Amino acid sequence: MKILESKYYRPRMLLQFEEYGNTIHAVADKDMYRQSNNPFAYLLSDLLPKIYLSGEKIVINKEQLQDFTECTDFYTVEYSAEYNICYQEERCFYHPTLHIFIVTEEDLSDEYGRDMFNQNVLRVNNVYYDSTNPKSLESVKYFFDEYLQKYVSNEAKVSILLKERHGFVFKTQRIKPLTINLDTMYNDDFLPVHQHIKSQLTDSKKGLVLLHGIAGSGKTNYIKWLTSQVPSKQFIFVPTNMIGYLTDPEMMSMLVDNKNSVLVLEDCENYISERSSGDLNTDVVSTILNIADGMLSDILECQFICTFNADISRIDSALLRQGRLIAEYKFKELDIKKANAYLKSHDIDKTVDKPMSLAELTNIDNASYKEQVKEKKIGFL
Q: Torsion angle of alpha carbons 281, 284, 290, 291, nearest 10°?
């Protein structure tokens, strides 16, 4: 099927301004679609009302596409180095009985896209329907029930915020969390905190978690493992050098397309410390507060996990407000009894006589070589 030759297409002439020639001339709208990276989406958006699904991870099984006719107006080609193949990033399909168009996306540049490819599903970004059809509502309802499903990954993944030449992007990659035993790897008071965090991340759509304490105490390992415990949420890792971009208007648009996510900010004490006049990071704290529990929380439905090594007294008190704070926990060394139980559970024939961090216990058999610094003495030889 060709949309440009169907009853749905209404040709138009558009005015185009040439920046350098300083002239205005008319061009056929077909030319504009041909020059687009998303020609089907642009074309149908000009012709029909749509249901926007781009940020929802809604998919259709490729086997079900036998009920559809593929639209052949355009062919969008991308290359995957991972698979060494060329593929169509954007495709369009028409259901002749329901009179519904769908625009699908296949992206093999990240783990989510590759998993969808391997599971034989396509992400559905837009659904278009004919509003002049009196059975449109009935058709759309049937279509959603019969063909579409929410994609839930079976493996732990994290999306990373990056800034590329054309703007911000989220790249999703598979991670391999360390298998965690809360009974042996963390102090006893952490289990109820974890249960509360997991419950709130699963069932709620706002608030923030503050995890702090000594380095090597297992904060990062816990967050990586947590991604597999809350598979319904997209975890977005924001590198330290990107935290300042949370105030960028483009980021708001990105988060609108990725609603109900968990933003992970590691080593972020410089950005969430108590605000003062002249502090360049004041806007960052305000943005976090607004997204976690302000006006934007109802729109973006995002939550935060913030980690830091600084003392909690240095953190902006507004972040600790009851109703906004999901949980705050300070990670410490494992006490002597817990540390020795951990070593025994890993068949390590050693014991310790002082509290130790999880990193120290995990690497207790790994020798490290450091330059020995001689003690300097003051006085005459």
A: -160
